[in-house]
Amino acid sequence: MGERLQRIKDKITRELGPIIRKALEDPEITEIMLNSDGNIWTEHFSKGMEQVGAITPQAGQALLATIASSLGKEITEDQPSIEGELMLDGTPRIAGSIPPKTVGPQLTIRKHASKVFTLDDYVDASSLTPLARKYLKDAVEKRLNIMVCGGTGSGKTTFANALINEISVLCPSDRLYILEDTREIQCSSRNFEHFKTSEAESMDALVISSLRHRPDRIIVGEVRDGAALSLLESWNTGHEGGISTIHARKTSLKGAFLRLEYLLQKALPGTENGQLIGEALDLIVTIEKQGQRRLITSITEVTCYNPEKAGYQTKAIEMTAADLIKKDNEGDS
């Protein structure tokens, strides 16, 4: 690192202050938020959201100016927002704004997980039943294609990391290809490659190019666009055992299907894609934030697509503990 960049990094570290620095060092904290009123909040894996301190508007403004400089940008009244990766270990993602867009300096720091929470951790946190844990471990070993569905802040990526950890434990020699827009997936496997999109190479291009490198499993951090078509086709043609996440406003089985169909329509407008979804996708796991916990609310096998009924044949996995897990009824969705 050059002398100038080192000076900027040191300045960022100082201006973050002791509260934010401590939160960045805590492996169980996933997000840090500076609100425009100066209050600092953190999102903790097991404790949820809590206020941990405050800083002055002047300190917040100085911090955002230094972060902007590290990104080769300026943050001004005419350009009041910045996004990028923080020049610190782990390169956490940041988004920040200043007045007049906000009433005061505002910053959100999303950390890349430094600790992988295992399926056992989810059971210990009462977010997953032991029976569901056993089923998911079997699903990983049987190379089922799994889609994790949830809303913003539901913990989709963190749970995907737990499933990827199971691959590393149960199938340590499998060659994993991990594709992301921003680096959030954590992998302890001995045999993996990690690729990130760029202006020159889209997610769709990454999925297609990955097929030339002999992957056993293809993992996409979050499928957001027409790359859903290439991903499902790869899962359906000899690359079973993949994992991806999908954002759905309504965290439900129906919401997951609707979102996937919408993304496939972006790739192939006017086509019927139910058959591909029914063949390529084996399992949908829904996750929600409820109170201070993130709960696995359903696990559903996708059996096939029924064109006569224009619906999916599914089978809900029995997980017991009805107060913890909301179960979908077996049937057409």
UniProtKB/TrEMBL annotation:
InterPro entries named among the record's database cross-references: Conjug-transfer_TrbB, P-loop_NTPase, T2SS/T4SS_dom, T4SS_GSP_E_ATPase
Domain of life according to the entry: Bacteria
Annotated Gene Ontology cellular component terms: cytoplasm
Positions of the Bacterial type II secretion system protein E domain: 211-225
Gene3D superfamilies in UniProt: 3.30.450.90, P-loop containing nucleotide triphosphate hydrolases
Single GO MF descriptor: ATP hydrolysis activity
Pfam families (UniProt xref): T2SSE
Record-stated family: Belongs to the GSP E family.
Protein's recorded name: P-type conjugative transfer ATPase TrbB
Organism: Solemya pervernicosa gill symbiont
